[in-house]
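Re: the request from the purification team.
They wanted to know what the chain is likely to look like in 3D before they choose a buffer screen. I agreed to run a prediction and write the result into the notebook, where they can find it.
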Amino acid sequence: MKKTLTGIGLAALLVLGPAALRAADKAETKPAETKPAPQAKAEEAKKPVTPGPLDGKSFVGEIAAKGQKANADTFLFKDGRFRSTACDKFGFKDAAYTTSGEGKIMRFRATTVNPSGAKMEWDGMIQGAKLEGTAVLNEQGKPAVENTFKAKIAK
């Protein structure tokens, strides 16, 4: 009986051995994945981006989902980052923004994120002292919600 078990064990080793060794080799040659510590991620998210052309500007107005009552909002541009104060209570943080255009007509875009992973995709147009645009809320497992916003430059 011992000889039979030993024979089966050797046969299994001969059949499975090369595959097991290949898997071990792959595991050893694959570089270790390192994830930044949560604090490092938070610090990276707060690092200022190159100053943007909208820095120092703030707009006071409102934001509303289609068919819903509007909520007061202030839109802030500072240190290359954009923030909507109405979204603060939902955990959304400021985010880097990009612009296109010059002078009195300028477009901006930003994506803000909250701790649960929900994202707001901001797309706005500034014409003189007016700001208008959309902010699409994307939450996992839910349909996207389109919000519109409009505001005037704060004095």
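For the purification team: The chain has a mean pLDDT of 78.
Please add any questions underneath this entry.
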